[in-house]
Amino acid sequence: MIAQLRRVVAASGLTQSQFAFAVGSRPGRFSEWLSGTVQPVARAYVRCLRLGQALAAVAERNLLSTPTAALAIRKSVRRGEIEHAWATVLAARAQLRAAMQADDTVTLDAWNAAPVPTDSLEWDTLLAAVVGHEFERAGRAAPTWCAVDPLPRSWRPLPPQVGQQRGPESTPAWLRRLRIRIPEADLAEPACPDRRRA
Questions:
Q1: Nearest residue to 197 via CA among 102, 101, 83, 66
Q2: Using alpha carbons only, how large is the chain's radius of gyration in Å?
Q3: Do the Cβ atoms of 126 and 148 come closer than 8 Å?
Q4: For 74, which of 52, 88, 118, 140 could close a Cys bridge (C-beta 3.0–4.6 Å)?
């Protein structure tokens, strides 16, 4: 059991702590599982294997998953590269749509994995909103991690030059309810043409 857990963690391309977040465990508790100090219940073990195998398959194909999208966003936000963070959100949406159109259950499973924190409540909320909306528009149940509360105050992630001529009234309702302001026209802009990691 321990050896199998270690294999899926290594194949996922995530650190042990990041993998723990992805499967909904606490890093400390997951460390106890890997050391053999505590044995996970059967349901948690099966979830780790399923999500780990999905994350490994997506990583091998050089596609985004929830954790890698969140990590890319966090890196961009820390560097002040907001346009790149937004491009990652669009690339994530494009890849998720493609997986749904292809009914690619393995890739979709990788989006059921929880994201690592981006260190920004706003970007965490935006990623959850976009992923949750894509599942819902495809008639699928959204991952549990997509259930987020509205932001404490209105937030507009895009730089002024991207959408300065469009008012907040054009923001779709599914974002407005979370107090996120993104004009519909900006959401409609095409994402990266390929499916590679942003």
A1: 66
A2: 17
A3: no
A4: 118
